[in-house]
Every structure is written in C-alpha cells, then in structure tokens.
C-alpha cells in the first residue's frame, strides 16, 4: 500500500513540474530567459499535444565594448546595403530563418543578428546558446497590456527586412517599445489601450537588440 501511495505522489509531482510545457506562462523564467509566447495552432513550430514557444533574453544585448545600440548591418559601405534574400519573413517562428539568412551573407561584427547568434547564457546548470534576432511578429508579442519585457520609449531591431522599402533594400523593420496609455478618450475610467509603432529604418541606423530562442 505504501509503495503504491509513493508512486502516485511521484506521478502527480512530475505532472506539475516546471519543465512541463503546458504550465508555462508569460513572464516565467525558463531555459535562460523570459517566456513571452506559447505557439498556437497554425504557428511555425506548433506541435499538437505539446507546448513550445518563445523566450526572450533577460536583458538587451550589448557589444564587448558595452554598446547597447548597433546597426542591423549588411552595409559594406555606409550608404550601400545588401538585399538579403530570405530575410523578409514577418511571422511567428521565422526569426531564426531571417537570422540565418542575414549571417550567411553579412560578415560584419557587432550587427544585430550576430549579437544574438553569439549570445550565450548559463541558467540553472545548462548553457543556452541558440539565440536569434526576432521577426517582426515575434517581437511584438513581448509586451502585453500592463506586462512588459521591452524597455519603453526604446526602438528595437527585428530580423525582418522591409520588403516595402526602396528597391535597394536599404531598410529593415524596427519596433518602438509598446506601452499602455490611459486617459482620453476615457478620462473618467481606468480604461487603457496598448500602443506602439513600427517602421522601416536604414540598416546602418543603430537600435537596441533583444535576443530570442525557441523551446
């Protein structure tokens, strides 16, 4: 009887383990970073009956010299940037695809994609070194109403090349940290709405970087 009782307790404890994906939620610290999105049906990386998703690095990345803002890159000359085939994906699950496409062509140090690719962290005895620059739709999942991962009033690079930019593809997509605004048109209530902005920016422009990995 005692043996059976112990077995049942072990089974229950295992089912509630922190490593069991279904129990993870936004904001949990897991596998080297902060959980911010669980894949939904239709997402690249979704597996029915399993829990997978995206994790953001704990902090914005920086160069060895402590620089927090870096260019998107792929500009052999300051005003002459390359068109990166395969780096125009905007969707969930495509940040790594974009990052690999960028790194296959661009050998510059201290660009956004390389900073992510070089990033490594030891967390709870494990080393996690499979980070990448998030796509546009991935990074927009990092901030939710009243819950934030990205710094406010800061611009961040995505790995998504701006396909609507000039034919020379000199632009990549940035996002501006999402925040809540409260007040008009609801000055007499606690109603808030979630705001942010996106836009194409020259690839030689400098912005911050937040790395992502999949689990």
TrEMBL record:
It comes from Flagellimonas sp. MMG031. The lineage of its organism: Bacteria, Pseudomonadati, Bacteroidota, Flavobacteriia, Flavobacteriales. This is Uncharacterized protein. It comes from the Bacteria.
């Amino acid at each position: 009887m005692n043996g059976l009782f112990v077995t049942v307790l072990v089974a229950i404890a295992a089912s509630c383990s922190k490593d069991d994906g279904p129990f993870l939620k936004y904001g949990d610290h897991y596998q080297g970073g902060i959980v911010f999105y669980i894949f939904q049906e239709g997402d690249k990386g979704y597996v029915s009956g399993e829990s997978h998703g995206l994790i953001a690095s704990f902090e914005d990345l920086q160069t060895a010299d402590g620089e927090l803002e870096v260019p998107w890159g792929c500009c052999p000359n300051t005003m002459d940037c390359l068109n990166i085939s395969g780096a125009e994906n905007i969707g969930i699950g495509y940040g790594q695809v974009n990052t690999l496409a960028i790194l296959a062509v661009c050998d510059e140090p201290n660009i956004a994609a390389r900073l992510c690719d070089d990033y490594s962290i030891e967390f709870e005895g494990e080393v996690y070194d499979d980070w990448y620059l998030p796509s546009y739709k991935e990074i927009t999942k990092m901030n939710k109403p009243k819950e934030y991962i990205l710094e406010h009033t800061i611009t961040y690079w995505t790995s998504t090349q701006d396909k609507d930019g000039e034919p020379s593809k000199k632009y990549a997509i940035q996002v501006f940290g999402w925040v809540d605004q409260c007040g008009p048109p609801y000055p007499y209530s606690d109603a808030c709405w979630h705001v942010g902005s996106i836009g194409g920016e020259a690839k030689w422009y400098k912005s911050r970087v937040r790395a992502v990995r999949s689990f």
